[in-house]
Amino acid sequence: MTDLTRLDAWQALAAHAESVRDTPMRALFDADPDRFQRFHLRLGDLVLDYSKNRLTAETLPLLVELARQTGVEARRDAMFAGQPINSTEQRSVLHVALRDPTDTPVLVDGADVKPEIRAVLERMKAFTTAVHDGTWRGATGKVITDVVNIGIGGSDLGPVMVTEALKPYARPGLRVHFVSNVDATHIATTLQGLDPATTLFLVASKTFTTQETLTNAQTARAWVVDALGETAVRHHFAALSTNAKAVEAFGIDPNVMFGFWDWVGGRYSLWSAIGLPIALAVGFEAFRALLDGAHAMDDHFRTAPLDQNMPVILALLGVWYGGFHGAHAHAVLPYDQSLHRLPAYLQQADMESNGKRVTLDGQPVAWGTGPILFGEPGTNGQHSFYQLIHQGTHLIPCDFLAPATSFHPLGRHHPILLSNVLAQAEALMRGRTEAEARAELEGRGLKGAELEALLPHIVFPGNRPSNTLVFRRLDPRTLGMIIALYEHKIHVQATVWGINAYDQWGVELGKRLAGAILPELEDDTRPLAHDASTNALIGLIREWRR
Ligand code: F6P
């Protein structure tokens, strides 16, 4: 892999960054009343306003040139064509095929994957209908009232985030719960108040080997068997997995195993059988609309020119701030309570994908890769960490998300919410100059030493970048578009940085070490051979629980 920083496009951007460092966005807006027209994109009912970024007329062409020189188009096309772009695992990356309703074949090892995808979707639809209409019943003949999805990481975060976001579409009469943490508190508190006779468990695990999920699933199994006997398991458990053997060994009927494939990454899997809890929560039609929205974004990503391509633009802006403005973090700020799990979902999607330190060919990178991603719904975040974004020493580009309409049009709530999101983006961009701050303090009657002492504290440097995504309403289609937008942003950034977004070796070491420590916690006589800190902590735990 060529050294990214030696590419002509990178060098040109470095020089350009220096030349525009002293040009605040406020001046760019003052000089160009058409700035929004120039720097926004629309796809259906989704608008991306990226005008509040440190962009002059020269910046975008230079960034697009970087995308060209790093092969963004070729790698995008390779993904859609089913080539094994996840090179460390020799796997294709085909979450895009899961939501493609067309018959156009997509080949993996010479075989079209579309018929299998369609077959699983059909089975998911039939199962969803059976649970909803009461054809599928528990062991005692009672209708299912509660579904508990047991999974973690990609087998949890996407479905949780989407079912929360689409609550206005929830089917009455069926509650969907999620258990992920191996901390017994999670499953114990979830099962409180549930009736085994009316509860259906979905054991969601791509590998069906994940310790947390299997531990929780065994606890759930014991809970059902204690109440209803061994034969009840096949009425109360379904599996979402790629591992048919392990599912069968657990005792789950193969007829209620919904499969997917190794070319679906865990954090990209909500479109597969892993989406079954979504379909159960909101109905299969709404689940299909979610897939269709994602497919619309896929088509846009595949066909739009790079300089009019939403995921490409978002990705390049991140590269611009990380590479040339010293940004290490990125905030996702949905002004929609329904999207309260979006930051958590994107933490995995982005940081597990692009938290990488070596290039595709194994060389340590000499540039920054994925940012630290965090967020909270607005306006809560405003009363928490926004102070640092406005006046702290770190540059933190922000994504604001805002629905034009609310499902709960109560009083003035929604206009107040929207006034806040627009004001935050404006404040970050404009800031407050010393002259403005001085005038304000004088207006408040302050003068002399008192005014001078307060002045520096109320100056805002401004020039802090943000994107604003506005949409008509948070319906399944729009949500599908937004999720796919972020997936492709992550893909493009990985391409520019020359890293593999689709493996996650970094999470393995801790798992292995936990496997060694577990028997030491279960048997106090085992000798300890860790570092002094780990030995001491194990000793303390042994002592305190005696
Ligand atoms: O955290 C590591 C990881 O492998 C994730 O990538 C994945 O989403 C999660 O564990 C759960 O894995 P599985 O679906 O195989 O249980």
UniProtKB/TrEMBL annotation:
It is an enzyme of class 5 (isomerase). Pfam families: PGI (PF00342). Its EC number is 5.3.1.9. GO terms for cellular component: cytosol. It is found in: Cytoplasm. Pathway: Carbohydrate biosynthesis; gluconeogenesis; Carbohydrate degradation; glycolysis; D-glyceraldehyde 3-phosphate and glycerone phosphate from D-glucose: step 2/4. Gene3D superfamilies: 1.10.1390.10, Glucose-6-phosphate isomerase like protein, domain 1. The active site is at 352 (proton donor), 383, 511. Keywords: Cytoplasm, Gluconeogenesis, Glycolysis, Isomerase. The keyword Transcription regulation does not apply. Its main location: cytoplasm. PANTHER family: GLUCOSE-6-PHOSPHATE ISOMERASE. Catalyzes the reversible isomerization of glucose-6-phosphate to fructose-6-phosphate. This is Glucose-6-phosphate isomerase. It comes from Pararhodospirillum oryzae.
